[in-house]
Automatic annotation (TrEMBL):
A Pfam match: Methyltransf_25
GO MF terms held by the record: methyltransferase activity
Organism in which the protein naturally occurs: Natronosporangium hydrolyticum
Key words, A-Z: Methyltransferase, Transferase
Coiled-coil residues: none
Methyltransferase among keywords: yes
Family annotation (InterPro entries): Methyltransf_25, SAM-dependent_MTases_sf
CDD domains recorded: AdoMet_MTases
Protein's GO biological process: methylation
Protein name: Class I SAM-dependent methyltransferase
Length: 239
């Protein structure tokens, strides 16, 4: 499915009825041949925006998956770059692709770092956290950063109600809610549970000073709003 190298429909169904960790372990060898991998234009736009704020020393990719975000850190950071994820299968793929990076298997809701990084990035991971879990995630990233450090991640703008994207993401989230109501273990992946205002409030509560920049290279919706923004959450220098 998706491409000759991608997973079959049967493999996707098995993944969908597994836990998040087990599902990604199963999908890992073929993950980069699916649309779920962060697209290169998003990575490039993020790199361009952050290049104006660096250089940085040590970098962390939060929920790194197969390591798609590592080239971003490689271009921006002068020191050590590290990826953290709880899927052993995804980390195995990442380690194979980027052997010079450091890889840590852990739950990012209990981040095992303190004051170790100047830049943290994350791509496409927020949907795996329920709103009640975001504070632990953000507080962990805050602790992992040095004073003055930056946490950056792209976040898509809500598409217009008249768009296909609006109804597609709504339908997907409703299907996942139904699945998680009747099947255990749950597979947490939602597109509409991390609106920018709520994310902004949770970052502020964790101690960050959040702002956003429009990633205009990724286009705009018909009404003029950018399709994607980059959240920039700064840990205060005196914290």
């Amino acid at each position: 499915m998706f491409s000759p190298q991608g997973p079959s429909l049967r493999e996707l169904c098995v993944q969908a009825f597994s836990s998040v960790e087990r599902g990604y372990d199963l999908l890992a060898p073929k993950f980069d041949h699916t649309p779920f991998r962060t697209p290169e234009p998003i990575l490039a736009a993020t790199t361009q925006a952050l290049s104006k704020l660096g250089p940085f020393r040590d970098g962390l990719d939060v929920c790194c998956g197969t390591g798609a975000g590592m080239p971003v850190l490689q271009r921006l950071c002068r020191g050590q770059i590290t990826g953290i994820d709880f899927s052993a299968g995804m980390l195995a793929q990442a380690r194979s692709a980027h052997p010079d990076a450091t890889w840590v298997r852990a739950d990012v809701r209990a981040m095992p770092f303190a004051g170790a990084f100047d830049l943290a990035v994350s791509f496409g991971a927020l949907g795996h956290f329920l709103p009640a879990e975001r504070p632990a995630l953000f507080e962990g990233v805050y602790r992992a950063l040095r004073p003055g450090g930056l946490f950056a991640f792209p976040i898509g703008a809500s598409p217009p109600r008249t768009s296909v994207s609006h109804w597609a993401t709504l339908g997907f989230d409703l299907a996942m809610r139904a699945r998680n109501t009747v099947w255990r273990p749950p597979f947490v992946m939602y597109y509409r549970t991390s609106p920018l205002p709520a994310v902004h409030d949770d970052l502020t509560a964790a101690g960050f000073t959040p702002t956003t920049v429009d990633l205009t290279a990724l286009g705009r919706h018909r009404g003029g709003d950018p399709r994607c923004r980059l959240v920039l959450a700064r840990r205060p220098a005196d914290s």
